[in-house]
Amino acid sequence: MDNQKKAIGVFDSGVGGLTVVREIMKQLPKEDIIYFGDTARVPYGTKSKDTIIKFSIENVRFLLKFDVKVIVVACNTASSISLPSLRFHFNVPIIGVIRPGAREAVRVTKNKRVGVIGTKTTIASRAYEDEIKYHDKTIRIMSKACPLFVPLAEEGWIRKKITREIAKTYLTPIKKQKVDTLILGCTHYPLLKGVIKQIMGDGINLVDSAHQTAREVSRLFLEKGLLNTSAGRPRYEFYVSDEPENFINIGKKFLGKSLKHVERVKEDV
User: Which one of 24, 60, 74, 75 is the catalytic residue?
Assistant: First the structure.
């Protein structure tokens, strides 16, 4: 098959990576997308490093069955832990969500004070700090794990009072450090942009890693001549490792529209 017409492969531990898919659909509307959500083994954030690497390798092998032209690791936890191993084992281009978000934060910060919020595993990995420091060692970084943001996003409790109170508890210490840029270091967090911005104030630059990752895919395709220029309608397929009903119901909030062509993978990925 012509490389331009091959699909984009995307994987996540569950539904959060659909925010990345949503951005890819917006920025690359002609591209076919194959998505795998490892819903039987979610969350990855509580797993060991070796287990996360093992799962990520298995996920890539599954997506390569579709002869995809690029793999997008739409999971901050997997991106922070498994990218070196994935790039060692596979020749296909592999894009994670850490580097695009970190680069954008370096670009937009004016006072060189950057906040990072994410899951406990992502924050503990210091992946965002390392990437930011690689580009600019003078930037001060304030990191905070916000684990309750994930279930709040999945429940759709975007405007609840309790969500605002939890966000205030998490974000006030970062706000006191006078950061002018905040990285949303989890693919669930874009759903909570409104309340996060409300707590942090109008002067904050919110860096959406999902948006920046889609831009990174666009840049790669332009550079390598991989853009799909065909006139046909794009093909979107979604695969999960557990029963799809919950994925379909929650996924609608993340994708912004109903999910079609969702299939459970019957065999081990």
Answer: 75
